[in-house]
Amino acid sequence: MRRLSDLFSLLASLEGRPYPLYKGLGGAWQGEGFTLRFVHVQGDPFASPSVVEVRYPPQALEGLWVFARPEGRVAVEDFLLRTLKSRLRHLPPVGGSGHSGRVWVEVESPKILKRAGAHLGEGGLYLRFRVGLPAAGRRILGKEAERLFRALAEHLRGLLPELEGRALLRHVHQAEDFAHIQEGLAGRGLVAFVGEGAILPRESGVSQRPLRGAVPFLPPPALRVGFRVPHAGEVFGMGLPQGLTLITGGGFHGKTTLLEALVHGVFPHVPGDGREWVVTEARAQRVQSEDGRSVQGVDLRPFVYGLPLGLDTAFFSTEDASGSTSLAAAILEALELGARVLLLDEDTSATNLLVRDARMQALVRQETLTPLLDRVAEFKAQGISLVLVVGGVGDYLELADTVVLMEAYRPQEVTAEARRVAQAHPTGRRFGGPGYPLRVVPRAPLPESFDPRRGRKARVRGRGLRELLYGEEVVDLSALDLFEEAQVRAIGALFRLLERRADGKTPLRALVEGVLGEGDLFALEEVPELAQVRPLELGAAANRLRGLLVRQVAGG
Ligand code: ADP
Ligand code: MG
User: Fold this and answer.
1) CA of 33: how far to CAs of 55, 160, 223, 416, 476, in Å?
2) 295 lies in the same domain as 364
3) Residue 194 beta carbon below 6 angstroms from any ligand 1 atom
4) Cβ(201) to ligand 1 under 6 A?
5) Residues 333 and 381 in one domain
6) Tens-place pLDDT, residues 359-371
7) For the chain, what is the domain count?
8) Where are the alpha helices (H) located in 294-449, listed in sequence order?
9) Which listed site, 63, 278, 505, 526, has its alpha carbon 20 to 30 Å from 307?
């Protein structure tokens, strides 16, 4: 193998030469204690920057191999990527055009996630990142490149020897304790745990940083539970029971903030995030109304039944769903994908799918919608829990197993009081369901659904957290809870696998679970920008493909 020192002299010798000569860097270079490989060399300084992969052999890793659970390995990877990212901030500034001299390590959120940028495997530790090779226009800035790579090599050599062992352990223990609680929730009859002292609000709507000066979370005594975890001893917090939970309270008292924390709590957080001890059942999913979305072949009858003119909702497809039909579809799709807990906020849910009050029941005789309210008993009977934020709709009070009242960011447990209020103020409404049972009909996608060439170009690209460019189609992912653009990219890459596996017979749930179980993101594409998603997100993204073609299949 060529030596890294030869790379430096090669770079210097390229000074002033045409950019494509950088292609000669391709392949591996042996450094001190690691190998550096150019996986992809960009064609010009404005193109997507080059991908570099560094491998540390197993003998360089020592204690890094020791972890109690598989989650520990992901946490080690996550920690190393973050460490590399912060070390590389100290690289010397390099001039030039386009992306010249920029080095990217992809970690965008405080979630501990499996990412394609780091991998601990039999071959050792692999780290991937992007480097913009320096140039002035189309001319190579070889001296600058040499300086950049010498400095980079210094950082890479020091990465493992200078690791902060204590911080690494804290990171790993956090992930392992999180996994322990998450797996223990169902056995304790809970859907979520919110640790005492947690900081739930963020600095701003676009920030992932904790709000400074926030009121720490204090569990109401009636809901306080403890979990004995492998590393942190016994941790205490609010345990939200299975069944129907209402989170209520006046405006601006922290209802949405709590729900939001639960949404994030399906993934572990780094120490210091404030939500480290917010743990939500792994198969929880937020659902919301999404005007204008596409829905393909969903049996909507549990919520929409008996449309005028005999229109059929057993195989419901539309390119432009309404607030209520989109929410109905989102709920049924989530159940189809195996969700066990649904999280809803009144603010983002069509009112007519949440409730129909006595007056409307009296006035409107030909009702086609069954509100969620009249399905609650069936959800419970099927073991599906609901966590619902309500500020304006009181009709759910008597059905709730747990009512949490937020007052100035302090949760109170008011279930008994809510029942008394419900009795003292009857709604006068009559039970409006079930016209049709709560039943999910699984759908099997056809492979064409995932063909990015349906358009002209097979482009797959993330656009922020909200959009995936897949072929010619822009898939709107804004209703999904994604935390890194790398998750959007992963969805695009996984669609390609779905294309191979879809056969018009295998249900969507089995397909998405299959491709996620099949391989590691690291092996999927040789790029750093892929991050872990759950089957629930991958399936939800597939459901938003306008070109999705499905057949309903038996079972469910
Ligand atoms: P609601 O949904 O009840 O109307 P939100 O959850 O949207 O209220 O919160 C309202 C505001 O209060 C937000 O700006 C949020 O950042 C802030 N907030 C939420 N929780 C806390 C807290 N624990 N400490 C301080 N501010 C908070
Ligand atoms: Mg709110």
Assistant:
1) 9, 10, 52, 64, 44
2) yes
3) no
4) yes
5) yes
6) 999 998 888 899 9
7) 4
8) 323-336, 351-354, 358-363, 376-381, 415-424
9) 505
